[in-house]
Write the structure tokens for this entry.
Amino acid sequence: MHSTTVLLIEVGALLFALGMLGRLGRSVGLSPIPLYLLAGLAFGHGGLLPLSASEEFIQVGAEIGVILLLVMLGLEYSATELVGNLRAAAPAGVLDALLNALPGACFALLMGWNWQAALVLAGITWVSSSGVIAKILGDLGRVGNRETPVILSVLVIEDLAMAFYLPLVTAVLAGVGLAGGAKALAVAVVTVIAVLVVAIRYGSTISKFISVQDGEALLLSVLGLTLFVAGVAAELKVSAAVGAFLVGIALSGPVAHHATEMLSPLRDLFAAVFFVFFGLSTAPADMPPVLLPALGLAVLTMATKVLTGYLAARRAGIALPGRLRTGLALVPRGEFSVVIAGLAVASGVEPRLAPLATAYVLITVVAGPLLARLPDYRWFRRIVRRRMATARRPAQPLPAGE
Amino acid sequence: MPGGRSSTVAGVRVRVEQTPLPGIGVRHDLVTSSGRTVGVVSHRNGRRDLVLYDVDDPDSCLASIPLTDGEAEALADVLGASLMLGQLAGLRQQAAGLLTEQIALPAGSPFVGRHLGDTRARTRTGASIVAVLRDREVIASPGPSFAFEANDVVVAVGTREGLDGVTAILAGDTTD
């Protein structure tokens, strides 16, 4: 009985502290993710206030947090959107992968890590945070902007790519080697395509199976289905997260809409636990040695993200200011990078990976929203306008075919 | 990426561009003949934003105005009323089998001086009375409490049978 009381006290105090932190962050316009990570650092081993009784609880909560993050992501997109977007935005997606995953992989190899760790770091630097970016776009009133579809399509491709990347990483980290990884990838490709086809053809039939009328039943059935499929996927070594993502995609229409509303508070709770758990698994003493490399990697991959956005927007016929807005908005890395790093931590592939990933996500997720705001400042606009004017002059004899 | 859709209004082709916003909803926008771009972002949760684009930087929106259902409807009504006559020309035959017809209220109609709601035209025929022309004026979207006068011309939209039904009702030819 005693340990249960301590657990209640610890979890209660932790959640309350997170609530206060989140509120503090919001008042200065900061995403709560870095604050949760810092809280995790503070409560972890060797931190300010190590948690003793509740670690196991937090670990399970973190597992559920990943699953909820992913199912919500899947609910956000319909299968038709994913496939329709794929054709139009595939070149941007490939560019995004090359420009952002490769620097991460090269960096890991330069640090003298093995190729498994390089694969993980590639994923960490590759994926932007759709959650943080969606919030930025809303806050800055840019949802209607003409470059916004470009940003969203890059995010969708990344999220879809995760359905293939996560099983690959999961398998590779389990120590099955490249051949085993390829097998997991093949299984994932077949599964994802099957789910997409079924969701597009019979999505409404599946969704009809779950009643929208009864909120409680809806919550329990969607949550149950998601956890069940995630568990089966993990058992088949295809990453629990991907199973959850596919459940989200398969549900559509009113069920998806209501499930999003019902699951949002749960997602907020368990995602917070997940970020704290990740911080917990990093000892603060390990942070200082990796700070400088993390800063270098962050600066490099923030620059490549800006370039990605610039090129993707140019392809879509967006003018210079819009291209810069696209690039700068894509900078923050967040929940996915932490999910990927979490997989690596669990397998113990490289001890310096967790502190590096923590520092990296902290830097990009704090710098991202600040950078995204840049194009709205007057001095920035003036510089851009001057550049546009000088760029236009040499082109004047030949009226460009715009 | 953006799918185009043209709608013909009063003989002038206006290109309304439709762009899906994955995870958010859909955006419709059009460039006016004066060179300004206006659009509507329809969020999946039912929220609607009216967006106006910057002249200097046509990719960014200058203002994004959230509209409630009522406000959007009111705005659509105000814009729609002034467009009614012109639109009728374009509406005709747009959807297969859907017709627009002007039906003069016969002098001996039982509905002169009575309310539109009393005709129960929509319930009985499926056709809708979308406007009434009176003294060269257009009264758009008349409500159920709208009172007919002699020499009114009713503009109805519906199928062939539906419109014939409305004609019959207004003439008082039906036994209910």
